[in-house]
Write a structure and sequence with these properties.
Shape: elongated
Strand content: under 5%
Order of helices and strands: HHHHHHHHHH
Number of helices: 10
Number of domains: 2
CATH architecture of the largest domain: Orthogonal Bundle
Helix content: over 70%
CATH class of the largest domain: Mainly Alpha
Radius of gyration: 19 Å
Structural class: mainly alpha
């Protein structure tokens, strides 16, 4: 007869996400995971696979539970440019407030280019955000919120790269005015 799980896999996954987010992949050992998650090594392997499998599941959970979801924010009906501006402002403030950074950016910095599954995950995440930004900026151009000569795709790529850079800058701490001033300059381009 099979034993029932004595733990909630969702709770354990959330705790693993937190540990990977704080410490990174390389600095988190299986022993750390067993201790932090409060489950046995065999249960961890049986439920989630190895450390790398758990890391990928944690990345998926991170993307699924972001609040607000950037893609949803950019997909709201009505004027599009305020949503793009709100996204830049949100990334700036998040980078000042939370020194853990963005888990996707952290994964890119730590695991790329050699970890193919993580590279695919990061690329998928960034492509999704770029697509949402491009769509929002196409709407903004059609609604006269930005110049008719603007290139929505190029602007979307700028915002994507800039936003990820904000996340990296936030990890270093430092003067919040640096991030806020940079965000103000980026927002000035979105007119």
């Amino acid at each position: 007869m099979a034993r029932t799980k004595e733990f909630d896999p969702d709770v354990v996954l959330e705790r693993a996400l937190d540990l990977f987010w704080r410490r990174g992949y390389e600095a988190t050992s299986m022993a750390d995971l067993v201790e932090h998650l409060g489950i046995g090594r065999a249960s961890l392997y049986a439920t989630f696979g190895g450390k790398h499998d758990l890391y990928l599941k944690a990345l998926e959970r991170y993307v699924q539970t972001r609040d607000p979801d950037p893609v949803e924010l950019l997909s709201q009906p009505g004027p599009a440019l305020p949503a793009v501006r709100a996204l830049v402002e949100m990334y700036a403030e998040d980078s000042i407030r939370d020194r853990r950074g963005c888990l996707i950016v952290n994964a890119a910095a730590e695991r790329l280019p050699y970890d193919e599954p993580v590279a695919r995950f990061v690329e998928t995440s960034w492509t999704g955000l770029e697509t949402a930004l491009t769509s929002a900026l196409i709407r903004a151009r059609a609604q006269g919120e930005i110049s008719a000569e603007s290139d929505p795709r190029a602007l979307a790529r700028f915002v994507l790269v800039f936003a990820q850079g904000l996340r990296v800058m936030g990890k270093g701490g430092g003067d919040p005015a640096r991030v806020r001033d940079a965000a103000a300059q980026a927002l000035a381009l979105l007119r």
